[in-house]
């Protein structure tokens, strides 16, 4: 089922404004310079969010999914929060380094909920869903106020339907819920992902999954699903930021009515000293992280920042009170290099079989996918 791209315009209107006018008005987020300066620096005065900052996240815009569910435009990512998966970072392993979590996932997610985040992005692979569930329980936030997303990992996908069903039951128990709002196939495991997706469709009919989606899918992976009688995914979660902006891929999915979730929205903090971000941030009295977040939001992608520090959680959420100009958006769009696309291609080829019995091989891997 396709939805019009115009539905994404809800991203640029609060519920009150949308009720008042059928036409979205991005300028509602424009504030005068003095207000912008105060808004973007308040988080430095203390750790706890102000009531206004919390209200901003609690009332954040939503994007409609293909079956009508409203997906919050911003969420809190839980990857490497409280636990580092064993195969999470080949770079760390190759340098002999060791990443150590600074705080537990329960502590971080409790802070995120206190700040006002209501969309939590989780996964089997992250290994911390039980901690996320403890944080939810301790927060007192009602289930109906949350949007919970999880993903099934490659090893489970390879094992088939019964393993997938068992993993979903574990995820539900760990999160303390009887359904998830969104469940994704984490990687398009060759020869296995289509049947995995069909299993998720069955679980959706059983009421344990509200929406079915995918993650890390290339155009060709999605076409394989559709050629095998699967419904169009509600979501595709891929890396999206100005330094990996695969416009043709994104355009294809959006033309099919697929909402794009952006992981590594902030590029793991590796671009915060980039001069373009600094220059644009100075114009709007915003931080580089806020510029990256606003770019994401303004393109209509679901923005999923992650931090273990409450003050950064607050900062990352302050992206709804300003607007980037057309020229600034175009300048950011142009930051993706051929080298970045080549690196992505290598990562895709490596990860579709990651942790499966075919790990380290190219067996079944699509070698000619849409890169840009």
What's a concise summary of this model?
The chain is an alpha/beta fold and 372 residues long. Helices cover 41% and strands 10% of the residues.
Task: Name the features.
372 residues; alpha/beta; two-stranded antiparallel ribbon; 16 helices; 10 strands; globular
Give an account of the 3D structure.
With 372 residues, this protein is an alpha/beta fold. 41% of the residues lie in helices and 10% in strands. It is built from 16 helices and ten strands. It has an eight-stranded parallel beta sheet with strand order 3-4-5-6-7-8-9-10. A two-stranded antiparallel sheet has the order 1-2. 44% of the residues are buried.
**Sheet bearing the most strands, described?**
8 strands, parallel
Order of helices and strands: HHHEEEHHEHEHHEHEHEHEHHEHHH
Q: Count all strands and give the number.
A: 10
Strand content: 5-15%
User: How do the strands of the widest beta sheet line up side by side?
Assistant: 3-4-5-6-7-8-9-10
Mean pLDDT: 88
Structural class: alpha/beta
Radius of gyration: 20 Å
Overall geometry comes to globular
Q: Provide the helix percentage.
A: 40-55%
- Termini distance? 25 Å
What's the number of helices?
16
Given as residue ranges, the uncertain stretches (5+ residues, pLDDT < 50) are 1-46, 90-97
Describe how the helices and strands are arranged.
Layout: H1 15-20, H2 33-41, H3 51-58, E1 62-64, E2 70-72, E3 76-77, H4 90-95, H5 105-115, E4 119-121, H6 129-139, E5 147-152, H7 154-159, H8 161-175, E6 182-185, H9 193-205, E7 212-215, H10 219-227, E8 235-239, H11 247-255, E9 259-263, H12 275-284, H13 288-299, E10 302-303, H14 310-316, H15 326-333, H16 338-351
Parallel strand pairs: 3-4, 4-5, 5-6, 6-7, 7-8, 8-9, 9-10
Antiparallel strand pairs: 1-2
Helix pairs in contact: 5-6, 6-8, 12-13
């Amino acid at each position: 089922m396709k939805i019009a791209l115009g539905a994404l315009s809800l991203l640029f209107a609060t519920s009150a404004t949308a009720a008042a006018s059928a036409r979205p008005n991005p300028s509602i987020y424009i504030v005068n310079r003095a207000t912008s300066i105060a808004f973007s620096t308040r988080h430095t005065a203390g750790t706890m969010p102000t009531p206004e900052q919390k209200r901003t996240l609690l009332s954040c815009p939503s994007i409609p999914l293909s079956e009508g569910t409203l997906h919050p435009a911003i969420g809190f990512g839980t990857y490497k929060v409280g636990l580092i998966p064993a195969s999470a970072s080949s770079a760390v392993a190759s340098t002999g380094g060791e990443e150590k979590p600074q705080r537990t996932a329960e502590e971080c997610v409790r802070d995120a909920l206190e700040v006002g985040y209501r969309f939590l992005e989780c996964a089997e692979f992250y290994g911390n869903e039980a901690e996320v569930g403890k944080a939810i329980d301790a927060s007192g936030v009602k289930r109906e106020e949350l949007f919970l997303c999880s993903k099934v990992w490659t090893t489970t996908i390879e094992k088939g339907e019964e393993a997938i069903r068992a993993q979903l039951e574990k995820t539900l128990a760990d999160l303390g819920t009887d359904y998830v709002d969104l469940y994704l196939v984490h990687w398009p495991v060759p020869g296995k992902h289509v049947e995995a997706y069909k299993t998720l469709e069955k679980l959706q009919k059983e009421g344990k999954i509200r929406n079915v989606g995918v993650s890390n899918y290339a155009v060709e992976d999605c076409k394989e699903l559709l050629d095998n009688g699967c419904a169009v995914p509600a979501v595709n979660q891929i890396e999206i930021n100005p330094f990996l902006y695969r416009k043709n891929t994104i355009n294809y999915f959006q033309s099919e009515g697929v909402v794009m979730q952006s992981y590594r929205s902030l590029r793991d903090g590796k671009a915060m000293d980039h001069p373009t971000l600094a220059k644009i941030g100075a114009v709007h009295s915003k931080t580089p992280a806020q510029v990256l977040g606003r770019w994401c939001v303004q393109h209509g992608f679901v923005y999923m920042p992650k931090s273990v520090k409450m003050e950064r959680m607050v900062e990352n959420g302050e992206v709804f009170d300003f607007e980037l100009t057309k020229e600034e958006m175009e300048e950011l769009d142009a930051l993706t290099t051929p080298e970045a696309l080549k690196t992505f291609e290598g990562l895709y080829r490596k990860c579709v079989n990651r942790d499966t019995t075919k790990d380290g091989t190219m067996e079944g891997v699509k070698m000619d996918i849409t890169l840009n």
